[in-house]
Amino acid sequence: MQNLLDRILSRDNLRTAYDRVVGNRGSSGVDSIGVEELKAHLRLHWPRLETELRAGTYRPQAVRGVEIPKPNGGTRLLGIPTTTDRFLQQAIHHVLAPIFDRDFSPFSYGFRPGRNAHQALRQAKAYINEGYQDIIDLDLKSFFDEVNHDLLLNLLGRKVKDPILLGLIHRFLKAGLLLGGLVSTRDKGTPQGGPLSPLLSNILLDELDRELIRRGHRFVRYADDCSIFLKSPRAARRVLHSITRFIEGSLRLRVNGEKTTICRPVHFELLGYAFVSTYKKGERGKYDLRVARKSWQRLKMKIKAITRKTTPASLEERIERLNSLMYGWVGYFQMGKIWGKLRELDAWVRNRLRYCIWKAWKKPNRRMRAFRQLGVESGIAYSWSRSRMGGWAIAQSPIMRTTVTVERLAKRGYQSFTKYYEQIFHDSRTA
């Protein structure tokens, strides 16, 4: 039987890892080698790289630090490895993930094959509707920056007996971080951005899952988001106190006391969703999923960015970007009660597109010709083309609604959120 390093460096595994890295695209690291140049780079340097990997002397390059804004304020630090290091991490991930995943908790849903956020949401809803309605919404403070390397390597060592492979993973963990022109060393943490990071986080947090299962608690975990469901506020306070001791003592992580809360379902949010009472006869105390307010706000901010009149883009480009956003958003939030809000959203989006069209026409004579081409009588076209109304008021006016119609927008590629939602709902019902 091949040892783990032989399996990682096998031709088939390396080819799969290469295809995944290239397919994911992504930015270049500190060496500025992009995915388009990776094949040529590997052809030139692979004999040396393989020798170093087998001898245990390979040294990963520093990761490039990038700060990205969080939706609720602040920034999140991403560490982007070089494409070569991403390729090697992906090759390791392909071999190690099946070994560890088969023993992970059934209540862990993040970054695992065959598991997803929708399953986590259904499980949370089931707990709530079974009466477990005092919820610990647990927040781990700067989780990816706090991972203890020694503890993580000990957990890896339970199944990985190859010291060369363990040493390589350790060096990936300790790779320096280039940020602001300076390289800092790392003695803890696993930077987000590398293919190995999600697996390593699940290996560590599986210890939390095991402890919760040992205590008989109902919980849902998605990556570092963990929610524990109990039947009374007193039990929730007791469990929060004891599980905090376990996390900070045994796992050497920190619980964020400011963001960790004990709440009821109406104040609970999970993975972009919230919960609302059904108020149906015979279903007192039952809850259903809805889209969280912040999720709606983030969607509208993205739509505003795409349809901002000062952004240089053709109507077709705007519609293409809107459709791409819509496919992902509706696909993810289809479990919420969104029909009514989607109808309102569609009307708003169409008005924003009409505003962009009106501004693109620019001058009165161009607007008059456009109205004439859309079938408006000369006198009316002349009058509206010289209107002193503001652009947003014009976009919502009868002249634009009856000329730049839904049907005409559809010919340019436009598709409404409600129509796509109906299509998904119909497909799910007939599947």
Short description:
With 431 residues, this protein is an alpha+beta fold. The chain has 19 helices and eleven strands.
Topology, element by element:
Layout: H1 4-8, H2 11-24, H3 35-55, E1 63-69, E2 75-80, H4 83-101, H5 117-129, E3 134-139, H6 143-146, H7 149-157, H8 163-174, E4 177-179, E5 182-184, H9 197-214, E6 218-222, E7 225-230, H10 233-249, E8 261-263, E9 269-270, E10 273-277, E11 287-291, H11 293-306, H12 315-333, H13 339-361, H14 364-373, H15 378-385, H16 391-395, H17 398-401, H18 406-411, H19 417-430
Parallel strand pairs: 1-4
Antiparallel strand pairs: 1-2, 3-7, 3-8, 4-5, 6-7, 9-10, 10-11
Poorly predicted regions = none
Q: How many helices? A: 19
| Molecular shape | globular
Largest sheet geometry: 4 strands, mixed
> What is the helix fraction of residues, given as a range?
40-55%
What series of H and E elements makes up the topology?
Answer: HHHEEHHEHHHEEHEEHEEEEHHHHHHHHH
- Spatial order of strands in the largest sheet: 2-1-4-5
How many strands in all?
A: 11
Separation, N- and C-terminal Cα atoms: 42 Å
Global structural class: alpha+beta
Beta strand %:
5-15%
Mean pLDDT, all residues: 92
Tell me what you see in this structure.
- By secondary structure, the chain is an alpha+beta fold.
- The chain contains 19 helices and eleven strands.
- It has helices spanning 4-8, 11-24, 35-55, 83-101, 117-129, 143-146, 149-157, 163-174, 197-214, 233-249, 293-306, 315-333, 339-361, 364-373, 378-385, 391-395, 398-401, 406-411, 417-430, and strands spanning 63-69, 75-80, 134-139, 177-179, 182-184, 218-222, 225-230, 261-263, 269-270, 273-277, 287-291.
- The protein has a four-stranded mixed beta sheet, with no helix packed on it.
- A hairpin with a 2-residue loop joins strand 9 and strand 10 (273-277).
- The radius of gyration is 27 Å and the shape is globular.
